[in-house]
Amino acid sequence: MADPTIHHDPVQTDDHPAGFPDSGQLAAGAPTISLKGLLLPLVLGLGVLGIIAWYTWDEGAFGQFIKAVNPWIMLAALGATAARVWFGGWRISFVSRHSLGFKAGIRCQLMWDFASNISPSVVGGAPLTAYYIARESRVTSMETKASRRGPIAIGDASAVMTYVMLLDQVWFALSVPVILVASIYMDVIPAAAGTVGLWTAMIYFVTLMAYAAVFAYATLFHPELLSRIAATLFKLPLLRRFRERVLKEMEQFAERSAVLRKQKKDFFLRGFGLTAGTWLARYSLAVLVIWSFVPDVDTLLLTMRSIAQTISSLIMPTPGGAGGIEGLYALFFGDLLPSAALIVPSLLTWRILGYYIFLVMGVTISTRHLQRTSGTSD
Fold first, then answer.
1. Per the domain annotation, does 13 fall within a domain?
2. What global pTM score does this model have?
3. Beta carbons of 71 and 347 less than 8 angstroms apart
């Protein structure tokens, strides 16, 4: 697994050497993708889109939208989607200490986006992505016969995802103060949310910031803190049956945290820089889509609302936040558009570039991966 051109060891646990478990081991714990998992987010997302269209529909809305669009800014929106994948793939490759090449990192990022879109937002697609990283590294290693890059064990892949998720948590913890400060000077939370909605959002943002800070601190310095919290929480009657499984996972988490603490400062700094690129690209998508047909929009307010809307979508219980995210788009951006009739065409454009395209790519990559796996299994 080690690359002689890299001066540091890959993120790897002592209990999971740089070898790959056999197919039986992987198949036993392999996450699965079901047709229901693919159809449910489509039905939810398009269903809410249909409800919004019912109340805002105007026969000439799509024609008005197309005529108003600045093609260069819309092209930049497409570029933002590409940048999100580019930075994300680079980050996964970097965190793996280049045991995954850049192209493999891109494929893993696309798989993560796909897995996240068919999993509840509060769960995410990390387990499926860790499994895919391990399988991808094995297939790549067998195809290239490269001695410099060996396959990544499933435990090492989980360590990679643990660190990537840590970077995301740090980013969320830093994004929330930006929203809170901006809310003093502008209506980051739209008036349509009402007083209850405003205070609910503020409590949520502060809670998220506190959680992200505790998660980052515990991961890097005191993983036993999370273990104690989990042990206490899963004593509750409704959660007790999951206690043994969770505590076992927390033991593995502590091992991965110990590896992270051994990394040098530049590892964290460069990883955070790639994380910033990934999330700034995500935030900019809605900004560019709306700016492309509303040239006089307040771009600063639009940017702050894009950050708030993105962070608000993290707690959606549906796959990929489908249904809820469409509602959040209408809430956060509806009053910034020239007319309510333009919500649906702009929302559909935004979801195609930031959501549906990843469903298509995920199915394509999964199919290709199965073909490559069967081709290298002999």
1. no
2. 0.80
3. no
Confirm whether 4 is domain-assigned. Answer: no
Tokens of 73: 């800014």
CA–CA separation, 244 vs 265, rounded Å? 35
Residues 120-147 have pLDDT tens digits of 665 666 777 777 777 776 766 655 554 4
- Each residue's pLDDT tens digit, 158-176: 778 878 888 998 898 889 9
Q: How far apart are CA 270 and CA 258, in angstroms?
A: 19
Distance CA 178, CA 207 (A): 15
Domain holding 304, by residue range, is 23-376
Distance CA 161, CA 100 (A): 13
Question: Is the Cβ–Cβ distance between 132 and 324 less than 8 Å?
Answer: no
Place of tokens 């949520």: 204
Residue 107 counted as domain residue: yes
Contact assessment for residue 260 and residue 220, using Cβ atoms and an 8 Å cutoff = yes
Which residue's structure tokens are 């990544």? 152
Domains held by the chain: number: 1
**Cα 112 from Cα 155, distance rounded (Å):** 17
Total residue count of the chain as it appears in this document: 378
Amino acid in the structure at residue 9: D
Q: Quick check: is 17 in a domain?
A: no
Measured between alpha carbons, how far is 269 from 272 in angstroms, rounded to an integer? 5
Cα atoms found within 13 Å of the Cα of residue 226, Cβ hemisphere only: 24
Of the candidates 28, 136, 40, 147, the residue with the CA atom closest to the CA atom of residue 89: 136
